[in-house]
Write a structure and sequence with these properties.
Blueprint lengths: L56 H12 L6 H16 L7 H14 L7 H16 L3 H4 L2 H13 L22 H11 L8 H19 L8 H10 L7 H10 L13 H35 L12 H11 L6 H24 L2 H13 L11 H25 L4 H23 L6 H11 L3 H7 L16 H25 L5 H8 L6 H24 L7 H18 L12 H9 L18
Helix pairs in contact: 2-11, 3-4, 3-6, 6-7, 7-8, 7-9, 8-9, 10-11, 11-12, 11-13, 12-13, 12-23, 13-15, 13-18, 14-15, 14-16, 15-16, 16-17, 16-18, 17-19, 19-21, 19-22, 20-21, 21-22
Length: 605
């Protein structure tokens, strides 16, 4: 029996000209289908959700581009801006605020998403800052804002800094009431990597309380810091997506005024212009990739399955929102594609398929190359298996070329593990077996279905991965999947209970003999969620691992994605809940004020 093969990528295409209109043409990342020049631009609408475009947005964007000198920008002009910024990063500043100044520059380029263009300069600054930190340099330790910012930036960039070095500011005092210092302390407390970091827990508690008090007292009304404080309190960094943050910071540069201290006007404009150019160019690529994926869904006939939720835009949002660099096109495409497939399979096992169909699909995947020896039980099985088979083989072929060895077998085994564990849950339901919470979680780590999404993407983020390295990702995978599974269970209990399904909330109540209420069980699960999140961040940031940092970051990206969708409800199941985020990252152009002026040094609060 022949399996229907769907081609995801075209065999050839002509790369479009530079979006800026000048200079030489540029090549799109592998796997991106360009929009022919004669085609009208795609409407800025999330799939199935109308975009609410404000009047004058186009005029605002055009005005901003004119202000920053962006019209008809050439590659040479962009390079000139990067060169000037690099010189500013390298420039030794005189006076007692050198470390604070340089860290502020690093913070800004990270906040607007262009830090990868200045990796060498940033490393030099952070190496020097880390040396000063180890020596407990007074320029860092005696200035609360600098100390907190140095700790956060150093830790998030993989430097080994101990939270014990913040013990001198672990308790609130009358000297620590400046809004900026409190904000930096609060953000530093969020990068905890162990439940034993009590110093950070203490700092987070009292700095958060004082910031809340300042908000309620209206002390920050009509100041640039107001939105920044509210955002930090309401959206911890692990609950949002990087590209959303970049867009917010580019569109609201006044929130970064206090980081740009005494910089030349040209440097201010260069930073903003580079951020605008990078984001705008990326959006063009994101739109092309999403259009390509949308065509794949139709060609694979997945849209013909009545039981399946189509979550393409959400999965692509999670890819573009975290793996935003233009060169990571293949990683984004396969991340989103496998996200669609795992959602379809999950729905097939939950509501769409009979037991016979589920067993048939599992058998087909187990046999793989010999699947033609088995007949399809139904058209639904044929559609689902054909989509998996074609996509995995194409992904495997491309990943094998990138890695210089055959990795298709590993990708097939990921799917086999998923279906085996899903069948275990089917058997539990069939015989009304109630697993222990431990049995449930061991199985659920796999059936949460992040394996086919995250693991194949490891092969496309840069480094070559030795076969022996794959075994070293087990703990990263376990922590990521446990955190995601528990976040999902806490928010989806009612729906799953109505469907007759058990999850960690109901199992915890059953295990307690009824002494725990549903609300209490949900609260109790917050601790293991938080522990998994901290432990995962420690592994991602740690240097004592054979797994390359870009690969480890994929697990953290997915953890953040789970928080993004499940920290305040079940946003993943709502077609509208995150539609605004889809539009913001992929479709809507930057909306910048016509009156934007170069960032100026702030007045003291």
């Amino acid at each position: 029996m022949a399996t229907r093969v769907v081609k995801l990528l075209p065999s050839s295409y002509v790369a479009p000209r530079n979006a800026g209109g000048g200079g030489r043409p540029f090549s799109l990342p592998c796997g991106v289908l360009p929009v022919p020049p004669s085609r009208a631009p795609r409407r800025a609408v999330a799939r199935g959700v109308a975009k609410n475009s404000p009047t004058g947005a186009a005029e605002n964007a055009a005005s901003m581009q004119s202000l920053l000198g962006l019209p008809n920008v050439t590659v040479d002009q962009r390079t000139a801006r990067e060169t000037r910024t690099k010189k500013q990063l390298q420039k030794p500043e005189l006076g007692p605020k050198n470390i604070h100044h340089q860290l502020s520059m690093v913070d800004v380029v990270e906040k607007i998403g262009i830090s990868r263009h200045f990796a060498g300069e940033i490393k030099s600054i952070l190496d020097a800052t880390h040396s000063c930190w180890l020596l407990r340099d007074e320029e860092i330790m005696l200035d609360t804002e600098t100390c907190a910012m140095a700790f956060r930036i150093l830790r998030m960039n993989g430097y080994n800094v101990s939270s014990d070095d913040l013990s001198h500011i672990a308790e609130a005092s009358s000297d620590l009431n400046g809004t900026r210092s409190l904000l930096e302390l609060y953000k530093a407390s969020q990068v905890s990597i162990s439940e034993d970091e009590l110093v950070l827990d203490s700092i987070g508690t009292w700095s958060g309380r004082l910031l809340e008090e300042q908000l309620s007292s209206r002390a920050l009304q009509r100041t640039p810091l107001l939105r920044e404080v509210e955002h930090a309190l309401n959206s911890p960094f692990y609950t949002t997506l990087d590209r959303l943050e970049h867009k917010r910071n580019i569109e609201q540069p006044d929130a970064m005024e206090h980081h740009i201290l005494n910089l030349p006007r040209q440097t201010n404009q260069d930073l903003l212009a580079l951020g605008v150019m990078d984001f705008t160019t990326s959006q063009t690529i994101y739109q092309q990739e999403l259009e390509l994926l949308d065509s794949w869904v139709k060609e694979s006939r997945l849209d013909q399955l009545p039981f399946a939720r189509m979550k393409l835009t959400y999965f692509y949002l999670s890819a573009a929102g975290t793996m935003f660099s233009q060169e990571l096109s293949d990683a984004r495409i396969f991340w989103a594609m496998n996200g669609v497939l795992t959602t379809v399979v999950d729905d097939f096992f939950d509501v769409g398929g009979s037991k016979e169909e589920l067993e048939n699909l599992t058998t087909l995947v187990e046999m793989w190359e010999r699947h033609e020896e088995t007949k399809y039980y139904s058209k639904q099985v044929e559609i689902v298996f054909s989509a998996i088979y074609s996509s995995v083989n194409q992904l495997g072929a491309k990943a094998s070329v990138v890695q210089g060895r055959d990795v298709t077998g590993h990708l097939v085994e990921i799917w086999r593990d998923l279906l085996r564990n899903m069948m275990t849950e089917v058997e539990w339901r069939e015989c009304s077996y109630v697993p222990t919470p431990q049995e449930y979680m061991e199985n659920a780590v796999v059936t949460f279905a992040l394996g086919p999404v995250v693991l194949p993407s490891l092969y496309f983020v840069g480094p070559k991965i030795m076969e022996s390295t794959i075994t070293d990702i087990d703990e990263l995978f376990r922590l990521m999947s446990t955190c995601g599974r528990l976040l999902n269970d806490v928010q989806t209990y009612e729906r799953e209970y109505s469907e007759g399904k058990l999850n960690s909330v109901s199992l915890l109540v059953l295990q307690s003999g009824g002494s725990l209420t549903i609300a209490e069980a949900r609260r109790e699960l917050q601790k293991p969620i938080d522990i998994c999140k901290r432990d995962l961040l420690r592994l991602v940031l740690g240097e004592d691992s054979v797994v390359p940092r870009p690969c480890k970051e994929l697990f953290w990206n997915m953890c953040k994605t789970c928080y993004f969708f499940y920290s305040r409800g079940d946003a993943f199941c709502s077609p509208e809940e995150k539609a605004g985020a889809v539009n913001a990252v992929i479709h809507e152009p930057l909306q910048l004020p016509c009156s934007l002026r170069p960032l100026s040094p702030p007045s003291a609060l």
